[in-house]
Amino acid sequence: MKRTAIYLLAIILISGCREKPSPVITGRNITAGHGMVVSAHPEASKAGVSVLQKGGNAIDAAVATEFALSVCYPEAGNIGGGGFMLIRMSDGSSYMIDYREKAPLGASRDMYLDEKGNLKEESSTETHLAAGVPGTVDGMLKVHGKYGRLSFREVIQPAIDLAVKGFAVTEEQAGSFNRNREYFLKMNASLPAFVKDGEWKAGDVLRQPDLAATLERIRDNGRDGFYSGKTAEMIIREMKRGKGIISAMDLAKYEAKFRKPLTGVYRGYRIITIPPPSSGGIILLQLLKMLEPWPLQESGFHSLKAIHLIAEAEKRAFADRAEYAGDPDFIDVHTSILLDQKYLKRRFNDFDPDQATDIKKIKAGLLSGHESDETTHYSVVDKDGNAVSATTTLNNLFGSSIVVEGAGFLLNNQMDDFSVKPGTPNMYGLVGGEANSISPGKRMLSSMTPSIVEKDGKLFLVAGSPGGSTIPTTVFQVITNVIDYKMDIRQAVDTGRFHDQWLPDYIMFEKGSIDSLVLEGLKGMNYDLKERSVIGSVNAIEILPDGKIRAGADRRGYNTACGY
Ligand code: DON
C-alpha cells in the first residue's frame, strides 16, 4: 500500500517536472489555452503572464499587472491614484475591492470656490489640492493578502525590474510625454523622469530609479512602505511645496475596502459588476434592465430604433446618477430601488418611439461638455478559471502631472470627480448634487465599471474600459454586442460606439460609426449629435465553448494581450 503511494507520488512529480510551460503569445486578438492578461501596455501584460506561469493565480497576476502599469503606463497606471477590482473565483464566488481615493481630512464642501461662490479655475484638476488620498497600494496589499497565492515580493518584482532596467516607450506614449511636457515642467520643482532633453520617440527607454526605490520600500515594508516612513514623508513634503492638504494622518488612516459586487440578470446571462462609490455598475444594470423588454437584435445594430432606445435609457440612468449616487459610507445610495424592476419599468414609461424626450422632463439642468482623457482597464483569467476585472486611474492623463519629488510617482487629480460646485459640470460634463459633495474622508463618485458576465453559471466575459462618463455605456455596448448582436469579443470591442449622458444634451458618436441616414433620422427626432474620435478603450476576455481564452484588446490605443 505504502509502496504504491510512493510510486504514484513519484509519477506525479516526474510528469509535473516534465510538463513544459506553453510558450507565451502576445498580440491584440490572440486565443490562449491556459491564462491571459489584457492591458494597455505590452510590458504590463507580460508582467502579469510571467506571474501566471510561475504558478500565480489571476489575483497575483492582476496585482503584478497593476504595479507594472504604474511603471510602464504612467498615463493612468498608478500608485498615486486608485481604482476598483472585481474578482470571480472559479467556484463562482465573487468579490470586489474598492481602492478609490478619499478626500483628505482637511477637505471641505466648498474648498474649490472663491468668496463669491465661483469655481476657482483648475483648482480641482491642476493643483496639489486636486489629489485625493491614494488607495492603490493598500488595495493591492489587501486583495493579494486575501486571495493571492504567491508571495507579495514575487508579484511586485516585475514592476521593480521594469522601473530599474527601463522599458521601450510605445509610439503613442512618446506622443503623450511630448504633449504633456509643459505640464510636467509647470507642476514640478525637479525634472520628472518623463521629461527628457529632446523629444521622446517610440523605442526610447524610460528608466525610473526613484519609482523603483518607492516600489522596493513597498515590497520590503508593505503598507508602511507607502503610508508611513520615507514615502509618506516625501508625500507630505510635496504637499507642503504645493500647498496641498494630504496629511500624515490621511495616509495612516487610508483603508481600501472589500464590498459586495452588484449582480443582475440580462437575457439569461448573469452580470457581476461594481457597486458604489462607482456609479458604473448601477448605470450598466439600469440600462440592461430598461432595455431587456426591447428586442435590440431585431431593430439591428446601430439602427435608428436601437440608438434611440439606448440613448433614452442612458439619459434616465445618468439623471439618476446625478441625484442619487455617491459614497455609500456617507449617504444612502438607494441601490436596490434604483435597480428595482418595477422602478425601471416606470422610468421608461414615457419613452416616445418617435421623439427624443426633452431632457428637462427627465430632470432639469444646463451644462456644457468636456472630453475625457485617461484611465486604464485590464482583464485577467488564469488556468483554473479565476478572473479579475480591474479599472485604475489618476483621473485624467497623468493625473495632476505632479510627481512626488524623490518618490517618482504621479499624484491623481481625482477630487474633480466630486461635485465641486453643485450644478457645475466636472471635466466629463457630469453634474452632481449633495450625494456627491465633498466631505473629509469621503470617496468621490466614479463611473468605472469593471464587469464580469456568466453564461450558464460559467465564466463568459471579463470587460471594462477607461473613458470617464462614457465607461458604463461602453461596457454596456460590449456586453450587448456579444449577447444581442452575436459578435465575438474582438468585434464587440472594436466596432464603433456612441454615448448619451443626459447632460450635456447630445449623443456623441465615434466618427464613421453611424450610417449617415441614421444620423439624419436622429436629427429629425430632435437629437443633437457630436462626433468624437474615440470613445473608451476596452480590454476584455471571452471564454469560448471549448474553454479557450480569447482576448479582445481594443484597437483604440496600444492595448496588448499576453497569454499562454
Ligand atoms: O472615476 C472616474 O469615473 C473617472 N475619474 C475616470 C476617468 C477616466 O476614465 C478618464 N479616462 N479616459
Walk me through this protein's architecture.
There is one protein chain. Residues 14-18 and 364-372 have low confidence and may be disordered. This protein has a domain at 42-258 and 384-436. The chain has 564 residues and is α+β, with helices and mostly antiparallel strands. The protein has helices at 2-18, 42-53, 58-72, 136-147, 152-165, 171-187, 209-221, 229-241, 248-253, 280-291, 296-299, 304-324, 335-338, 341-347, 359-362, 471-483, 489-494, 516-524, and strands spanning 25-27, 31-32, 36-39, 82-88, 94-98, 167-168, 205-206, 257-259, 262-266, 269-273, 376-381, 387-393, 451-455, 458-463, 498-500, 507-510, 529-532, 539-543, 549-553, 560-563. The protein starts with a helix and ends with a strand. The strands form four sheets. The chain has an eight-stranded antiparallel β-sheet with strand order 1-20-3-11-12-4-5-8. It is built from 18 helices and 20 strands. 6-diazenyl-5-OXO-L-norleucine binds next to loops.
Helices and strands in order, then pairings?
Layout: H1 2-18, E1 25-27, E2 31-32, E3 36-39, H2 42-53, H3 58-72, E4 82-88, E5 94-98, H4 136-147, H5 152-165, E6 167-168, H6 171-187, E7 205-206, H7 209-221, H8 229-241, H9 248-253, E8 257-259, E9 262-266, E10 269-273, H10 280-291, H11 296-299, H12 304-324, H13 335-338, H14 341-347, H15 359-362, E11 376-381, E12 387-393, E13 451-455, E14 458-463, H16 471-483, H17 489-494, E15 498-500, E16 507-510, H18 516-524, E17 529-532, E18 539-543, E19 549-553, E20 560-563
Parallel strand pairs: 16-17
Antiparallel strand pairs: 1-20, 2-19, 3-11, 3-20, 4-5, 4-12, 5-8, 6-7, 9-10, 10-13, 11-12, 13-14, 14-18, 15-16, 18-19
Helix pairs in contact: 2-3, 2-5, 3-4, 3-5, 5-7, 10-12, 10-16
Bound molecules: 6-diazenyl-5-OXO-L-norleucine.
The site of 6-diazenyl-5-OXO-L-norleucine has 16 residues, from loops.
